[in-house]
Amino acid sequence: MKFLSEYRDSALVKEYMDQLHKVVTRPWTIMEICGGQTHSLVKNGILEMLPKEITMVHGPGCPVCVTPLGIIDEAILLAQKPNVILCSFGDMLRVPGSVKSLLEVKAEGGDVRIVYSPLEAVKLAKENPDKEVVFFAVGFETTAPANALSLVQAEKEGVTNYSILASHVLVPPAMEAILSDPESRIDAFLAAGHVCTIMGMNEYDPIVAKYKVPVVVTGFEPVDLLQGILMAVQQLEKGEAKLENQYARVVTREGNALARSVMNDVFDVSDRAWRGIGTIPMSGLEVNHRFAAYNARNKFHLADTEVKENPDCISGAIMKGMKKPHQCPMFGTRCKPEHPLGAPMVSSEGACAAYYHYSRVPQEV
Question: Does the structure show a pLDDT above 90 at 309?
Fold first, then answer.
């Protein structure tokens, strides 16, 4: 495990930690949205060093974790077809579907390949004109532009044997779903900086105004997260609710207009099911009518299916900030990275994986 003192910004870390201990006077619960932020908090021992009044809970910002069983089963169905090459980022291969995982399909002879960019999948389609190449397009607003661009590129080059199976989700609707839950006890949010590099910050203004909660856009380094936590606590202690930008070196209020433009050209906003949470209205992106020929659901006539989740997995409660990973009876026993019950134990951004690999002393809720 790394320790905060190892960082070149350790003086700033100490300063922010000292300020937190001075300013906090009562209990506050803060949710960091992004799984990358969760891993940084746990891996670097930040949770153990915060004042006891501050409880960090972990949100649904892991794209692998929130991909529902039904869509994973769709990917598995496609990967089992003899004329299909199914491409995916590596984390998705070990996520369990209702019966098996993509990794098991690959072991059984399915043509499942790990790629690092959807454009690699487009290239693969050009090189294999006798095969259908499907890219399993999972992610938040950060990966959507590149996935959209792959369809634009395929159309431009006349590549007709390429399609994507889209499972894109959007952050603000998930935040609203969490805040609308009667059991929610979130006092403030740390918003994901990389999402805001694309989308900007304007989408968070209505959430702050409606729910009266501070939202602080932060980065992922320990010093970023500590400063973001301090900014949120300072607001809470003053009874304020504002949108602030800790990650100003990267994030602007307007975001990346070009990236949003290509997303809007390719995707329509749609309802989306979230694993462990349920369907959140207008929280996803689906390939629009213009690019319907590149939509794997259309090309392979896939039917929407709802699959019951493993009742022993409490991933939904974890991703809504109601439980911590170590509070699951299956954590570290029946559920481990080698044989996970749910995606949060598999993904490199999953909260359960972070606690399993790095946490030493659980922080009680």
Answer: no
Examine residue 85 and state whether it is found in any structural domain, yes or no.
yes
What's the rounded mean pLDDT across residues 93-103? 91
- Three-state SS for the chain is CCCHHHCCCHHHHHHHHHHHHHHCCCCEEEEEEEHHHHHHHHHCCHHHHCCCCEEEEEEEECHHHHCCHHHHHHHHHHHCCCCEEEEECHHHHHCCCCCCCHHHHHHCCCCEEECCCHHHHHHHHHHCCCCEEEEEEEECCCCHHHHHHHHHHHHHCCCCCEEEEEEEECHHHHHHHHHHCCCCCCCEEEEEHHHHHHHCCHHHHHHHHHHCCCEEEECCCHHHHHHHHHHHHHHHHHCCCCEEECCCCCCCCCCCHHHHHHHHHHEEEEEEEECCCEEEEEEEEEECHHHHHHEHHHHCCCCCCCCCCCCCCCHHHHHCCCCCHHHCCCECCCEECCECCCHHHCCCCCHHHHHHHHCCCCCCC
Amino acid type, 92: M
In a domain, 122, yes or no: yes
Residue 356 lies in a domain: no
Residue range of the domain that includes 164: 1-312
Tally the domains of the chain: 1
Residue type at 360 in one-letter notation: R
Q: What is the CATH number of the domain that holds 212?
A: 3.40.50.11740
Per-residue confidence (pLDDT) for residue 307, from 0 to 100 = 80
User: Helices 35-43 and 351-358 sit at what angle, rounded to 10 degrees?
Assistant: 10
Residue 302's pLDDT is what? 92
Strand 278-287 relative to strand 267-274: parallel, antiparallel, unpaired? antiparallel
330: pLDDT strictly greater than 80: yes
**What are residue 3's DSSP bridge partners?**
none
